[in-house]
């Protein structure tokens, strides 16, 4: 059957991934059961009128009241906060939950979906960075699947073709290098928010775009790959590939290397996550390799992009260390976007948190949330000094 109907709930529906996912669902004729966002009530209202979901959720009370007035003529139920997202995620009618909220706030809804035995299409990489052990163990226990949406992880997932990770020698994770690749740290002290938001190849939300500029995004993706594919840190190599055409590769133990290539358009990995294991036609441009001409690969500059080294070190230390660097980064990027700190302060905050915030092993979600709170407090205190 070309178009098997699925019922999807989308967390983060007003964002870059969320809006593209809605287009994909509409093109495929999938039913959208529920939508969640933080506070963009005007876009949520438009989405609700077009898609007629049963449930909506927003994260603050003012937005919740506003949306209830806006949609008073409909029978859509409007939920509130992280609890609202968890209720949506665990809902009985979901075939799949797409988690595309930004930040660690996505962790609890991911766990709620998995605990209810629901498959999760995961764009929200912070979920796996903060608590990869807890999340993968929850998925295993409840027989639910995590399907990657992040372009590199979708590429690896496609290159694995169902092969076991024991056959994998290395994952080759590609990085664009961001807008500042080739620059030295002294040249980056005074760059502006607008400069950091100029990604060379992708249009994305503000937080991930800044993460690409510091290369923290690749550090987060390194940890995301460890959990998704069950590999050790020594088995992942990061290659700067300015063209963003090879989305990542798998090197097998017999030396064969499989790569996934395509135009840099998130419609492809989003659709694959929603239709997996089937491939359906998708309205994206064709990759013209004559136009691309050549594909280049370089080593990352760990001296300038210190967030990358901090994330890799956290990955090696394990326990709560990845949670700490992630939470410190979230806090620092928010301050940078508010123009309260400079660009290079982000790396100082992340590296400082890695060394100074206690991060042992953990067993519970509460310990993860507490470590994140300590890291955020560390950054906020450091900035106010
Ligand atoms: N954009 C991309 O191409 C890619 C993104 N990703 C990952 O996907 C995730 C989303 O990225 P992106 O779409 O770019 O981000 P955006 O900033 O564009 O969108 C974020 C979404 O999350 C919602 N949101 C933010 N905070 C909360 C909250 N506290 N409660 C509920 N909803 C919240 C926003 O709602 P509102 O609009 O109301 O603020 C919005 O819908 C990130 O983890 C990112 O790293 C991964 C690969 C590629
Ligand atoms: C589209 C996507 O998946 C982003 O994570 C993108 O890969 C960011 O690019 P870089 O981190 O390689 O700059
Ligand atoms: Mn990515």
From TrEMBL:
Cofactor needs: Mg(2+); Mn(2+)
Domain 1-deoxy-D-xylulose 5-phosphate reductoisomerase C-terminal: 146-229
Pfam families, A to Z: DXP_redisom_C, DXP_reductoisom, DXPR_C
SUPFAM superfamilies in alphabetical order: 1-deoxy-D-xylulose-5-phosphate reductoisomerase, C-terminal domain, Glyceraldehyde-3-phosphate dehydrogenase-like, C-terminal domain, NAD(P)-binding Rossmann-fold domains
Top enzyme category: oxidoreductase
Reactions performed catalytically: 2-C-methyl-D-erythritol 4-phosphate + NADP(+) = 1-deoxy-D-xylulose 5-phosphate + NADPH + H(+)
Domain of life: Bacteria
EC number: 1.1.1.267
Domain DXP reductoisomerase C-terminal: 261-377
Annotated 1-deoxy-D-xylulose 5-phosphate binding sites: 125, 151-152, 176, 199, 217-218, 221
Gene3D superfamilies attached to this UniProt entry: 1.10.1740.10, NAD(P)-binding Rossmann-like Domain (3.40.50.720)
GO molecular function annotations of the record: 1-deoxy-D-xylulose-5-phosphate reductoisomerase activity; manganese ion binding; NADPH binding
Keywords in alphabetical order: Isoprene biosynthesis, Magnesium, Manganese, Metal-binding, NADP, Oxidoreductase
Domain 1-deoxy-D-xylulose 5-phosphate reductoisomerase N-terminal, chain residue ranges per copy: 8-132
Pathway(s) of this molecule: Isoprenoid biosynthesis; isopentenyl diphosphate biosynthesis via DXP pathway; isopentenyl diphosphate from 1-deoxy-D-xylulose 5-phosphate: step 1/6
InterPro entries, sorted: DXP_reductoisomerase, DXP_reductoisomerase_C, DXP_reductoisomerase_N, DXPR_C, DXPR_C_sf, NAD(P)-bd_dom_sf
Gene Ontology terms describing biological process: isopentenyl diphosphate biosynthetic process, methylerythritol 4-phosphate pathway involved in terpenoid biosynthetic process
Residues noted as binding NADPH in the record, renumbered to the chain: 14-17, 40, 124, 126, 205
Residues noted as binding Mn(2+) in the record, renumbered to the chain: 150, 152, 221
Biological function: Catalyzes the NADPH-dependent rearrangement and reduction of 1-deoxy-D-xylulose-5-phosphate (DXP) to 2-C-methyl-D-erythritol 4-phosphate (MEP).
Family that this chain belongs to: Belongs to the DXR family.
Protein's name according to its UniProt entry: 1-deoxy-D-xylulose 5-phosphate reductoisomerase
Organism: Harryflintia acetispora
Recorded name of the encoding gene: dxr
